[in-house]
């Protein structure tokens, strides 16, 4: 249940996304117990971002758990992201959402993340969104500095299309080891725009977020989504699976780029189903293409 991002770094095939951790309403001890429960099941990778949590506090919630149980740090991989600036109480001077990849901003955000996470380093830093005003040479200097200072071990991108990925990689001496983006049977734009194929070209394994389309896989709200649910249900029965989310996970895992899936849930039963989906009978090509075609992909 591992995905090898490069020779030195592997992550678990199921990644726990911590974007909604503040909504889980867990005590610090309960977060410790949840992390331990995940690690026992081979899930060792936890996905953060500096803006996660209504008050940007989710990294801090996780850090409090690591402070309570420091031995967990060397058993897990921590992913975090930065470059999104949002207007809220934490940023009273910001009036408009924007992206910022200036050197000093990224350095400041990484240091703040490390303080909140109570860590000396993060395993993987992702540039959260593509900044149209980015200076690729300056970004290269920034990433080099973070690596040389030991604050970040490896780097990747998030929500970058193939052109954006290649443009930044051209000017960056550090190899990006992944691209994190959305993909699900109700949203296949990242098949249509070539991002999944680009992962093969770049030799990277992607990290897929929102695999269940924010729950719409279970509760469709229009005829198209209802039709997709029926297709997933047919395949669920063919594969003798418990629920349709297992079908979706198998559909994503079937791609030869060897994706990891980011689950933004603290529900153990859903996580258990995802774990089961990573093994067992593989979806057939016909089943896989049936979902893709239902999603709107034109074969010819």
Automatic annotation (TrEMBL):
Pfam families in UniProt: Aldo_ket_red
Highest taxon, organism lineage: Bacteria
Any GO CC annotation of this UniProt entry: cytosol
Domain NADP-dependent oxidoreductase, chain residue ranges per copy: 13-290
Identification of the protein by name: NADP-dependent oxidoreductase domain-containing protein
Organism, scientific name: Paenibacillus stellifer
